[in-house]
Amino acid sequence: MFPYPSASGLHVGHWKGYVFSDLYARRKFLEGYNVLHPMGWDAFGLPAENDAIKKKIHPAINTQKNIDCFKVQLKKIGAIYDWSKEVNTTDPNYYKWTQWIFTKMFEQGLAYEETVPVNWCPKCLTGLANEEASGGVCDRCGTAVEQKPLRQWVLKITAFAEDLYNDLDELAWPEKVKLMQKHWIGKSTGTEVFFKIKNSDKIIKTFTTRVDTLAGCSFVVLAPDHELVQELITESEKENVSSFLEKFKYLTEKDRMMEKEKHGVFTGSYAVNPLTNEALPIFLANYVLKSYGSGAVMGVPAHDQRDFEFAQKFGLKLTFVIKPATGSIDDSKAYEEAGILFNAGQFDGLNSEDAKSVIADYLEKQKNGMKITYYKMRDWIFSRQRYWGEPIPLIHCSDCGTVPVPEHELPLRLPEVEEYEPSGTGESPLAKIEAWVNTDCPKCKKAAKRETNTMPQWAGSCWYFLRYTSPDCGVSLADKDAIKYWMPVDLYVGGIEHAVLHLLYSRFYIKFLHKIGVVDFKEPFSKLFNQGMVCMKSPTSGRVEKMSKSKGNVVNPDEIVDQLGSDCLRMYMLFMGPPELDTEWQTESIKGVFNFLTRLWAFVSNKENIEEKASIDSQKRFHSFLKNFKDRLDEYKVNTAVSAIMEYLNDMQRQRLKFDKTILAQFLTAISIMVPHFSSELLEAVLGIQLENQIWPTVDESLAAKNSIEIAVQVNGKLKSVLHVDISMSKEEIIELAKKALPSFFDFNSIKKTIYVPGKIVSFVC
Ligand code: ANZ
Ligand code: ZN
């Protein structure tokens, strides 16, 4: 995942993912693959704009400065990035295609304009994100926010909901991420039940996943903003209802849902239960959302706890229609489990799971309902009222309506302006630039106005990986053959915080581009790896937290590189712990890695450790190391792959084994993927060969075959070391080796007793 070039620069946490992906890029390269390991910049967006405003430097200049700094820092990693493939989302030659994709979506009816309520602070005069308006008050000034309808551009991601959901199953992604996307998309299969309204020809559609409970439905509830509300209110209930509605006017859906207390009001109207023909009171309530399902719910207090609480409060009828197969019903709460139907007329005795389809079929036949699948995911609000983003390439003409900027006029450049601060009126700062706003309609050539909203930061990151294949392509978003050759991405590495947003939006874009024939695959990232975060104790909170400048717990990689070298930091990042987990930075441990590398350097550069032809023991030890190393890499257990190198050196020294030139070259080549500078220096200095000419070594399986066993060495019951010994070794030889594995300061005279458990343990009692 390409970085957002922030002003604070790189910290060691950023290294973790980059070193990890470099490891696999280097391995594939040595294996003879053609590898595309690129880098680029996700440089539009609010943080970049805010930083520029703070420094009073134009965002374009400021962003370029940040990129330059980032690049200097990144180069210290020594990754095999192909800088000729660099992309930058703010480059007009790049965002031309971000805009082009939008116009294609617009032409396909997948980008539409809608006036949607956004959180609006009447004091700050700006729209706020849901996260900025929790509890119904403005995050900045504490004023109660209103729901203000603002004109927005929305992308119809829901058109792909089914594929976005189903195709997850094919992906080699962490289960956790797939599950998070499934929850977000929120597929729900159920039944829409139609309720006739008494004294009206209208019907209310309610969505339920438990149509088996329909016989127990004793009321119907609508969201307070449901479109039928006004028609349902009877004269006698007018006052009650309007004071109820007044109370909820300012709350977001989320806040309404969060409230534990069930609030509601009777409308005065009744609906008819299509199974029992009973008349059911129609209510409005805070716990029903307009934006989900059909915005109305059939209330079944006996089998839904929310409905139960609501019914208790309003004294509504409680009818159990499902009972457990054994045991009895507790009528102090809802029974939400599966069971057997009763009190349900012709459906009595059915098991509740079967009853779902039987009753749905029955309703369909009577035209009182239909089976339906709903998705919780909403369409994507795509416009921002800010300067630093891709201008939305549309023109509003009073005669022709909304017309896309023709392809040959793209990119539609962001105009140079003096004032790029948010205007505060809910309009983009672009709206103030009359010379830019006023233009001609591409169709009828009459005077028209440009759209002034810009795209969100996500727009450029939804498809950048395609551009890496041919960043200079001028005729399409990327060269068709190049896309075919390289894509989809084989291994995508990044943090889990992108599990839903970026990773879902990119999947949507690729599905769209597949639909219009730009790509011939439907998923952008075949394999995903989420690296964990690097954490450290924060001086402000005293807790171990994710590294970040604001918490004052960052380690600057440049300093570490100066003191200990890039390879030492690389190896430490890989050794810190399982790569997918969050791990704590420890300065002591990185010094341990430094000491190890120093020891390895001394061992390898000592001519006495190289002989003409390595002993069979040495060959066996090397190939079992290599097998181990590869297996652990294949399983992405890179920390244990580092341990394999450490164990190997320990055994070489302990057992006084020597390399020959072939083994040494293979060994240094294998570990070069972790410590490339170190390896290539040694290859050149000791063997006179170039890393660039090496290939990934193959394991000799016959030599790697398990011919050694692990023996634990204990002193007074405490584990001191683990030996890898040849199975042919005698008890005496093993005890000798075990003694050598103890620290040099160990007093051998203190040994009272030596116990050897064959094939397992050497235990010294002192
Ligand atoms: C009647 C019923 C009886 C329900 C029962 C549940 C248990 P999921 O699985 O999340 O899709 N529901 C439907 N639309 C709603 C809305 N707009 N706002 C709030 N709640 C809504 O949940 C589906 C269930 O959530 C539906 O099934 C409905 O309650 C409720 F014993 O219908 B159920
Ligand atoms: Zn026109």
Tell me what the structure shows.
Helices cover 35% and strands 19% of the residues. The longest helix has 19 residues. The chain is built from 25 helices and 28 strands. The strands form 8 sheets. Strands 6, 7, 8, 9, 10, 11 and 14 form a 7-stranded mixed β-sheet that branches. The site of ligand ANZ has 17 residues, from strand 7 and strand 11.
Question: In percent, how much strand structure appears in the residues?
Answer: 15-25%
Structural class from helices and strands?
Answer: alpha+beta
Shape, please? globular
> Given the structure, what is the number of helices?
25
List low-pLDDT spans. Answer: none
Q: What value does the Rg take, in angstroms? A: 33 Å
Number of strands: 28
Relative helix content? 25-40%
Please report the distance between the alpha carbons of the first and last residues.
55 Å
Quaternary structure annotation: single chain
Blueprint of the fold:
Elements: H1 12-30, E1 40-41, H2 46-55, H3 59-75, E2 87-88, H4 92-107, E3 111-121, E4 126-128, E5 146-155, H5 161-166, H6 175-185, E6 187-197, E7 203-208, E8 219-222, H7 229-232, H8 238-248, H9 253-258, E9 264-272, E10 279-285, E11 296-299, H10 305-314, E12 322-323, E13 340-341, H11 352-366, E14 369-375, E15 380-381, E16 394-397, E17 401-404, H12 434-437, E18 438-440, E19 447-450, H13 458-461, H14 464-467, H15 480-486, E20 489-494, H16 501-515, E21 525-530, E22 534-537, E23 544-546, H17 557-564, H18 566-575, E24 583-584, H19 587-605, H20 616-634, H21 638-654, H22 661-671, H23 676-687, H24 701-704, E25 708-715, E26 718-726, H25 731-740, E27 753-757, E28 761-765
Parallel strand pairs: 1-2, 8-10, 20-21, 22-24, 25-28
Antiparallel strand pairs: 3-4, 3-5, 5-15, 6-7, 6-9, 6-14, 8-11, 9-10, 12-13, 16-17, 16-19, 18-19, 22-23, 25-26, 27-28
This protein binds ligand ANZ and zinc ion.
